[in-house]
Amino acid sequence: MKTIQVTIDEPLLNEVDRAIQELQTTRSEFIRSALRLALRRYYITHLEQQHAQGYAAQPMTREEIAEWEDAQAWGAE
Fold it and tell me: Whole-model pTM above 0.85?
């Protein structure tokens, strides 16, 4: 592990300190966990953007869409 220095405003630090007391953890572990969640969100957003760009560059044809229309279930028949 590597030690880093991070500057945050006092109100945010106070919130972190309240949370770590409730969670019975440390600032370091709390921040590592928050960074993991932020990175996961970043990667998901990145993949969603790639997905959207792919469909924008090569949209589905009406025939491809029609193939799946019968497989949809939208309520009582």
Answer: no
CA quadruple 59, 63, 68, 70: dihedral, nearest 10: 150
pLDDT in tens, 19-51: 999 999 999 999 999 999 999 999 999 999 999
Query: Half-sphere exposure of residue 15, counting CA atoms within 13 Å on the CB side?
Result: 5
Question: Where in the sequence is the domain holding 35, given as residue range(s)?
Answer: 10-65
Is 77 within the bounds of a domain? no
For the chain, the domain total comes to 1
